[in-house]
Design goal:
By secondary structure, this protein is α+β, with helices and mostly antiparallel strands. Helix content is 29%, strand content 34%.
Length: 218
Amino acid sequence: MTALNYSLEPDLVVICADALRTESPSEPIGFCSKVLPLPHLHGVMCCRGSLQLMMDWYVFVQTEVVAVDMRQLDHLATSRLPRMWDTQEFRPATSSIFHFGLDGLEGRLRGWRYQSPSFHSESLQDLTVGIMPGPRSLIRSWAEGQTLDQRVHAFIGLMRSQQRWDRSDEAPESDRSGIGGEIHLLALSPDRQTLWTCYELDGFDADFKTSLRKTEVE
């Protein structure tokens, strides 16, 4: 799974995700990028659940879709994603694809979620903060920032809290996401997007060594 947090406004979207790949929440197998830019569509995609589903969808969008914004991509997602899901050999119990980006018709940024198994299009509410995973108490870690720099620090603090909860005895096994690696953060405006690595989470070296040993054994 993935730690995925976002703030959504008509003129600014900020997204952050961790980078750890796991076979289970306690078995690291490597690192990856879970926030995938689509600058030709003035948008970005990310996911929680199946990395393979997101990669298949990303390749499809890059090689077979003709569109100019994320609103046009929305119409294709609801028909194509269920077919991709049905053909996956290995998949988690649930998976969600998220799109953020320009709605050219309305002239503003929007967010959409597509959740297995139906992958119906769900519009995300404007002026909201999405926090996944964690109990509601983690929402108190979010500090409203007036500048992007303040918001970045708030997201770093939030994900550190999520990782501590995810690796504690408080988190039920079924709710754990295997949060680790680095924090990748993307800031998206109607005419620009910037993606960077903003923080290295606790346990990075241990997760890397575990992943490397597993690769060498295989």
